[in-house]
Specification:
The structure holds 2 protein chains of 2 kinds.
Chain A: H1 2-23, E1 28-34, H2 41-60, E2 69-75, H3 80-90, E3 99-100, H4 105-112, H5 115-118, E4 121-123, E5 141-142, H6 148-163, E6 173-179, H7 182-185, H8 188-198, E7 201-207, H9 215-224, E8 228-232, H10 237-248, E9 255-257, H11 264-267, E10 278-281, H12 291-301, H13 316-339, H14 347-355, E11 358-359, H15 361-366, E12 376-377, E13 388-394, E14 399-401, E15 406-407, H16 410-428, H17 435-439
Parallel strand pairs in A: 1-2, 3-4, 4-5, 6-7, 6-8, 8-9, 9-10
Antiparallel strand pairs in A: 10-13, 11-12, 13-14, 13-15
Helix pairs in contact in A: 2-12, 2-13, 3-4, 6-8, 9-10, 13-14
Chain B: H1 13-16, H2 23-43, H3 46-72, H4 80-97, H5 103-122, H6 130-150, E1 163-164, E2 169-170, E3 173-174, H7 178-201, H8 203-213, H9 215-220, H10 225-252, E4 254-255, H11 262-275, H12 280-307, H13 314-335, H14 340-353
Antiparallel strand pairs in B: 1-4, 2-3
Helix pairs in contact in B: 2-7, 3-7, 3-10, 3-11, 3-12, 4-5, 4-6, 4-10, 5-10, 7-8, 8-10, 11-12, 12-13
Classes of the chains: A alpha/beta, B mainly alpha.
């Protein structure tokens, strides 16, 4: 009897659900691979909250030319196999995924092999494979507005400026503390290239995942006394590193993080002891004063629809989620210009949008990103769009800007990207995209 | 009542010694395999193939390999993840460096290299036993983790340390679509399952079991411990290595050493213990339990929540899933310490005498 009632209830729920989804109009589906559990949870959670809040804001603003956005999450816990499982689960749902943002370099590597077959783009804003900036080989990857080589180049530029020029770096010793995985290693080519150019020494210090065991590394730092420490860390690894640095007495002013190693969750617990620590930021930092944050607070959080706690709105990683969502949405808007306004775009159509993104400062200001980011414009060959960064420094309780806008030196990065992409193409026996393919 | 062998007379040794002496078993298994080959590819969705069935098949194969070593020969090993890694990276190097290399050949050579490494790390088993051996094989895990992270030759000097393969063909047939991948893995699992089953029923298998049950006694009756133990290591690592190569080539496509971390070794050992030590069927059931159950729970929990009008957050689902999974492992081990395979044979026995238990 009880079982029967249960099945009846289940059947009723199913039919209700089916009819409800049939009634709803078609929506643009943005899957989210979240990391709300596992070793990166404190950092990946605000990203996902920011992403989802911005999608709600887009709907509150009236959708993408009337097309509402739809978000569904799948938990990866920063594990590559789980991420791939989530990708398979979500890619066909709700009429097909528009674009994936894996928020993990490991998952990006795995999905890079899968997306051409499924015709879904990957946005890896600030992470993933750096060589995917070459759209001639990587048709479906978009490391929009930054990858690790941009981060590495800009942080070195900042240090060189502080020292008074690149020539002053000669003979200096740099320790690179990095996550021992593709994520950490992606930073190395650019610093090695720069070290060769300017004659500074590198000391590579890999930290095994998840990065909570760093005593030996910092002992080495203490013995070798490098002039600077550059950290390519993520999740629980960052606060551990900073705490170890405090314990070893390494000056925080000489420590620089890349853009996944400098957010509030990393430094909150260390507090005043971390004063002086800096991190290069992918354009934005903590932006509680920006127009888009105010709009989210007013149109989403004030209505009780906020995804996460109100306090984190506008924090560094929350903003990165907002920016990721904005780029994903604007690509669809660009695609609608070509394939029909007010229509739901397929993954393939959205790809065209990401490849022909042209976000001018006026457009960005209108979206509420004034002072948060600079213009982005992509093309068939150039899948990154721009390479700006700023450095911010922890003053003991919050971040303050400590540099002006820095632009990565494309003279150095472009040939490296091309060389690496060519190597990939040769391994995979791919040919570069033709001019005809570019127009499509 | 439903499951009786009354009237099935064996008139030859051959009939008496077949893998499934009972006709019902034989037909059921054949039917199951036929279903797996014909019906499943027609019905399964892409998600089911890529995220559930293919990982399950490959892990089942690895579990068979581990079971030969741990279950049949009694040598506890925590280096299975390392042997998988050796298989995957050896196959990758064969495939990437030798032009015109056949994928199947690369995968099998990967297994052969894993067998070699397995023999090397099996040498301590001649002196140390039980838990001490488990610790000694753990060394294999650390050595391989280190080698594949640090020696860039193994990863073809890839800057990120991640390697990938594509354009897979077997004997001229493409292995690209989910169904093709599934059929490829299934064929290999059937071949290796049959091979393993026959091996453990043969003289060498009996030697392994003799060593497992009491190695001094086995030596006294003329079984060479070195030969028996190292052959178990070799065969086991070969199968695990082939599974590792498949895991990289077919399931992941692009991988880093973290895919074969020490967690993988533990996972394989759990599969074998939960499935049933010394049972080929147990390896397959154990793999299903460890690989498929978390995914099922993950899909089921939000649905269950929605049934009662609860909005379950994604993080809560993840935590609940881990808790339920852990509780189920404990429950199964209490109910049947000999694993799922034993549970199955008890069930069979019950069916046989039903409805008159005495």
């Amino acid at each position: 009897m009880k079982f029967r009632q249960l099945t009846l209830a289940a059947a009723a729920a199913l039919t209700l659900g089916a009819s409800a989804s049939a009634m709803a109009q078609a929506q643009q589906f943005f899957p989210v691979l979240s990391g709300r559990t596992g070793p990166v949870a404190p950092n990946a959670t605000p990203w996902a909250n920011g992403h989802n809040d911005y999608m709600k804001l887009v709907n509150a603003r009236g959708g993408i030319n009337g097309v509402m956005t739809l978000v569904e999450e799948c938990e990866t816990a920063y594990a590559t196999d789980k991420g791939v499982e989530c990708y398979e689960r979500l890619k066909g749902k709700h009429g097909g995924a528009t674009v994936f943002q894996p928020l993990s370099t490991g998952i990006t590597f795995a999905l890079t092999e899968k997306v051409p077959g499924d015709k879904i783009s990957l946005i890896t804003s600030g992470y993933g494979r750096s060589d995917t900036a070459d759209g001639g080989v990587f048709k479906w990857n978009f490391p929009l507005i930054g990858h690790y080589w941009v981060a590495g180049d800009t942080v070195l530029q900042h240090i060189a400026k502080k020292e008074g020029g690149w020539d002053k770096l000669k003979g200096k010793k740099f320790a690179i503390v990095y996550h021992d995985s593709p994520f950490g290693k992606e930073l190395l080519p650019i610093v090695q290239e720069r070290a060769k150019m300017h004659g500074f020494e590198l000391q590579l210090l890999p930290v095994p995942a998840p990065g909570v065991e760093q005593k030996a590394i910092w002992l080495q730092v203490r013995q070798q006394r490098p002039d600077y420490v550059i950290m390519q860390t993520w999740g629980v690894m960052t606060p551990t590193a900073i705490k170890e640095a405090v314990a070893t007495g390494y000056p925080r002013e000489k420590m620089f993080g890349t853009w996944w190693s400098g957010a509030e969750p990393d430094l909150k617990d260390v507090g005043a002891a971390a004063k002086g620590y800096s991190a290069v930021m992918m354009q934005h930092g903590a932006e509680p004063q920006s127009a888009v944050v105010k709009e989210i607070l007013e149109k989403v959080h004030a209505k009780g629809q906020g995804t996460g706690p109100k306090e984190e709105v506008g924090s560094v990683l929350y903003m990165r989620g907002v920016m990721g969502a904005m780029l994903a949405v604007e690509g669809v808007r660009a695609a609608q210009e070509r394939f029909g306004k007010g229509k739901v775009m397929t993954g393939e159509q959205a790809r065209w949008g990401y490849e022909n993104l042209n976000l001018t400062q006026a457009k960005l200001d209108a979206l509420g990103f004034k002072g948060v980011m600079r213009p982005v414009s992509t093309s068939c060959q150039d899948h990154i769009g721009s390479g700006w960064a700023r450095v911010h420094t922890w003053d003991g309780s919050k971040f303050v800007w400590s540099s002006d806008w820095l632009e990565a030196d494309q003279q150095i990065i472009k040939p490296m990207v091309k060389q690496s992409a060519d190597k990939y193409a040769a391994e995979k026996k791919l040919t570069r995209r033709t001019a005809a393919d570019c127009g499509s | 009542m439903f499951y009786r062998e009354n009237g099935q007379f064996k008139t030859s040794y051959r009939a008496d010694q077949q893998i499934f002496p009972i006709a019902q078993d034989r037909w059921a298994v054949l039917l199951l395999v036929a279903c797996a080959f014909v019906v499943v590819p027609l019905l399964a969705s892409e998600y089911l193939f890529l995220s559930v069935l293919i990982p399950f098949l490959i892990m089942a194969m690895a579990a068979i390999g581990v079971n030969i070593l741990v279950g049949y020969c009694g040598q506890i090993s925590l280096g299975s993840g390392a042997f998988m890694a050796v298989g995957a990276y050896a196959a990758y190097n064969m495939y990437a460096r030798i032009p015109g290399m056949q994928m199947l050949v690369a995968v099998l050579t990967g297994g052969a290299f894993a067998a070699l490494v397995g023999i090397v790390f099996g040498i301590p088993s001649l002196r140390v036993r039980g838990l001490y051996l488990a610790v000694a094989t753990l060394a294999a895990q650390f050595v391989c983790d280190w080698a594949f992270l640090r020696i860039s030759w193994f990863t073809n000097h890839s800057t990120s340390g991640s390697v990938s393969v594509s354009n897979l063909h077997v004997l001229g047939l493409p292995v690209e679509t989910p169904a093709q991948k599934y059929l490829f893995c299934l064929s290999l699992l059937v071949v290796f399952g049959l091979l393993a089953k026959n091996l453990v029923r043969s003289a060498v298998g009996r030697e392994w079991m003799a060593i497992r049950d009491m190695d001094v006694a086995a030596a006294v009756i003329g079984i060479r411990p070195m030969y028996a133990k190292l052959s178990a290591f070799a065969v086991s690592s070969f199968i695990v290595g082939v599974a590792g190569a498949l895991w990289g080539f077919v399931n992941l496509g692009s991988w880093e050493p973290a895919a074969f971390s020490v967690d993988r070794s533990f996972q394989l050992l759990f599969m074998v213990i939960i499935g049933g030590l010394g049972s080929i069927l147990g390896s397959i059931l154990g793999a299903a339990f460890i690989i498929v159950l978390p995914i099922v729970l993950n899909l089921l929990l939000p649905w269950l929540g929605s049934l009662f009008g609860l909005e379950v957050s994604i993080a809560a689902v993840e935590h609940t899933q881990v808790m339920i999974f852990g509780a189920l492992i404990v429950w199964f081990l209490i109910v049947e310490p000999h694993g799922l395979a034993k549970l199955w044979s008890v069930g069979k026995q019950k069916l046989r005498i039903w409805p008159f238990p005495h």
